[in-house]
Design the sequence.
């Protein structure tokens, strides 16, 4: 059963690529069907419930040191990852069709576009509508944001989540099949829920944050390369995208998010990052591509185009690689 996780032949790897390319297309065609998810919980919602349960049971401060809570967090992540992996193995028994369905549900290309486009449209209405729209995709205080702040937040979220929501899940599916996909989604969801550096989660969420960093290391850099190529016809172009990526990615507090964000900043010639407010505190951060323009509504649309082109390029690369590995794979 475990032998099926990793493709052993060129034909098996090519088939996995074709399934992934088909899922990318289906995700864009159908997106998130609200009628379905109103009736049954989305898999990520189920992951969230499991993570919340683990946090309630294990993250108790009374009578526990920070080291004890960190060890408990490690154990909790091991259990969550094991559950996700075993569930993935079970789903894999359904064959290619089951893999296609699971991938289509868990890839978030269309959802990402919908949320960023909602910010773009709201910016055309009024600042209050735009603040509400961007609050749906960021964890920071949006009540004092102006147009430039909102546009930067949307662009940064789009670049980072191209990796988290599309390229990274695809990468781990290609390597380890559905179990790899579910392990990644469980870890990424845990990081978004308990991976914060605050008094409540610093110790318990340490394992979630560090494992997420590991799993996103390669995908984040692949995403950045895709953004650079996709930015060929954008304001900054491919040369500024590469230059910004290489010069500024390391300035970001995250070891991974800086790569796609810096590439996007140079690609559309807009400065990103800088100080931002999280609830009652301001987090200071270096600017990415500091020589760039100030973000506005039009640059959000430009970023959306880059994100779409990057995903098209990724899908085409999958199909071409599959055909080169196994010419008969589409027959």
Sequence:
């Amino acid at each position: 059963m475990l032998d099926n996780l990793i493709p052993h032949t060129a034909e098996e790897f090519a088939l996995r690529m074709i399934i992934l390319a088909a899922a990318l297309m289906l995700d864009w065609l159908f997106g998130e069907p609200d009628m379905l998810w109103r009736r049954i919980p989305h898999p990520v919602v189920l992951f969230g419930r499991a993570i919340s349960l683990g946090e309630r049971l294990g993250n108790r401060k009374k009578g526990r040191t920070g080291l004890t809570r960190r060890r408990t967090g490690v154990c909790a992540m091991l259990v969550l990852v094991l559950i996700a992996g075993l569930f993935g193995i079970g789903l894999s028994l359904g064959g290619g069709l089951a893999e296609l369905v699971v991938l289509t549900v868990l890839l978030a290309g269309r959802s990402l576009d919908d949320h960023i486009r909602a910010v773009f449209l709201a910016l055309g209405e009024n600042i209050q509508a735009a603040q509400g729209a961007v609050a749906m995709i960021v964890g920071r205080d949006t009540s004092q944001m102006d147009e430039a702040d909102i546009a930067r937040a949307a662009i940064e979220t789009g670049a980072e989540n191209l990796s988290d929501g599309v390229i990274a899940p695809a990468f781990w599916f290609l390597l380890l099949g559905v179990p790899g996909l579910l392990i990644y989604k469980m870890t990424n969801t845990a990081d978004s829920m308990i991976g914060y550096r605050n008094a409540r989660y610093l110790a318990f969420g340490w394992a979630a944050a560090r494992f997420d960093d590991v799993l996103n290391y390669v995908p984040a850099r692949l995403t950045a390369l895709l953004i650079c190529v996709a930015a060929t016809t954008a304001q900054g172009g491919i040369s500024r995208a590469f230059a910004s990526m290489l010069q500024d990615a390391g300035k970001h507090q995250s070891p991974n998010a800086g790569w796609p964000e810096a590439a996007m900043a140079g690609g559309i010639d807009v400065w990103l990052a800088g100080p931002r407010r999280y609830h009652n505190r301001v987090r200071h951060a270096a600017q990415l591509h500091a020589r760039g323009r100030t973000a506005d509504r039009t640059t959000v649309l430009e970023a959306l185009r880059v994100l779409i082109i990057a995903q098209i390029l990724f899908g085409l690369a999958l199909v071409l690689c599959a055909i080169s590995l196994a010419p008969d794979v589409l027959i």
